[in-house]
Amino acid sequence: xxxxxxxxxxxxxxxxxxxxxxxxxxxxxxxxxxxxxxxxxxxxxxxxxxxxxxxxxxxxxxxxxxxxxxxxxxxxxxxxxxxxxxxxxxxxxxxxxxxxxxxxxxxxxxxxxxxxxxxxxxxxxxxxxxxxxxxxxxxxxxxxxxxxxxxxxxxxxxxxxxxxxxxxxxxxxxxxxxxxxxxxxxxxxxxxxxxxxxxxxxxxxxxxxxxxxxxxxxxxxxxxxxxxxxxxxxxxxxxxxxxxxxxxxxxxxxxxxxxxxxxxxxxxxxxxxxxxxxxxxxxxxxxxxxxxxxxxxxxxxxxxxxxxxxxxxxxxxxxxxxxxxxxxxxxxxxxxxxxxxxxxxxxxxxxxxxxxxxxxxxxxxxxxxxxxxxxxxxxxxxxxxxxxxxxxxxxxxxxxxxxxxxxxxxxxxxxxxxxxxxxxxxxxxxxxxxxxxxxxxxxxxxxxxxxxxxxxxxxxxxxxxxxxxxxxxxxxxxxxxxxxxxxxxxxxxxxxxxxxxxxxxxxxxxxxxxxxxxxxxxxxxxxxxxxxxxxxxxxxxxxxxxxxxxxxxxxxxxxxxxxxxxxxxxxxxxxxxxxxxxxxxxxxxxxxxxxxxxxxxxxxx
Length: 605
Hints:
Layout: H1 3-13, H2 17-25, H3 31-38, H4 54-67, E1 71-75, H5 79-94, E2 99-103, H6 114-122, E3 127-131, H7 138-146, E4 151-154, E5 168-170, H8 186-204, H9 217-226, H10 233-246, H11 252-260, H12 271-288, H13 292-299, H14 303-336, E6 347-352, H15 359-370, E7 374-380, E8 385-391, H16 398-404, E9 409-414, E10 418-424, H17 428-446, E11 457-458, H18 466-475, E12 487-500, E13 504-511, E14 514-520, E15 533-545, E16 548-560, H19 580-596
Helix pairs in contact: 1-2, 2-18, 4-8, 5-8, 5-9, 5-13, 6-7, 8-9, 9-10, 9-12, 11-14, 12-13, 12-14, 13-14, 14-15, 16-17
């Protein structure tokens, strides 16, 4: 779009040309769609009538309300599972329904197990809802059916060939589901169910007015951001309004957890705080054992109770970080001694005695270091099995890669960006080759392994003012499928170098008379010195220090100017970067073509 057209569109939308350019680069070209990105409203949410299983689930919940049945709720041990269980349990309790809520224990294994089903029955549940799990838990569902207890399965993972034996199954991915957006996480589906339940009860004239489910959107935003689903369509609406609710700080557990995470009471909470401050802490108990402490924290209505619960969750988080750091170092050392790593398109590492719950963190760290998809496995010598997690890079569908290796696997499932896997220890050597070949096959289809981000534009530091920063804020939130803007600095001089707490590299970079603060998270080992001339790619943002708000850029890559060959870390760079402005233009054209042809790049990650 020509600069004059950008200005004209910006005037029509009441925003800046920079904001319009960012939306176009992310495939949002139509003016009405741009309006929805800038000002998403809850009325933009499409009704759930076409969602398969939704009507049956709603009828079961209405019946439970009419007959005052006790409802059992079970959630997975990650953020989406815990927030889904919290949304369902606390909303039903607000309606006056007795609830028994449980969440998974990682040590017992993934999913809704038979012992969980029996525990809910023994606690008096006459209706059971599962969140973020249950799709493949046929034994538990069959047992409950035999016991005469109906089940509603709420999930968003890929659906296996055998559908779950549930009276109601809500999953946008199931065959026959005509709900147009497939990217909802389980917490998002739970919100839809609560909202519809409120409407139905009002039509039936049952009792006092039901509570407004919008008060639960803070939890929905938490599950949506942390579960790596695309921030498009309905999810943008849910997250934008959820962040607004989160900033009201009405939920005692989240308010206490924000304080424990070092977020001041007057600090504006955005998707970065959710993804990097709250999410890892809520995940921490479930990574090491039972997720129950996280559920108790989110469900508490007492500020006095919330403080010690948040401190307990933080202790799990400290323990989780300690475990992760040591295992990541061990995994990197193992890969350094593996001669196949350099020629493989994906890396696989396995270790005996590693905690299964942190394999996702290990895989993510390996992706960052080696710039390719990674699979980390924890070997259990007693069972002869290894369980672990994959993480994607450069758009590779890791679930599809695992599907290509399925003959070697005991179990696998998840999303294109992150999946879980179980394999016999004896088959790990063959899996290394098969996983790498499956990824190489995907990359051959697209030509080259691209960098993990695209560059939006070359941007001089002196332009990092209100115009640019307000434009970036107007288009937020950013996340999967709607990435934060990345800019290119062609050359700057390093004025200061510091290593700060946590192993982060902090720099002062100068262009002409303009100096900016920059940080490269977890890259203290990068060799750079005062006086070096460097180029970099970066994401602008704000940092609060002693009550003062300042612009600080996050470095994604760094190289000696004017070369374009040194990444963070340099040894891991793969592929060749095209000139950034040319690449950004190509991507914008590709996204526009996708949109105009009626195809959507939205998919569940």
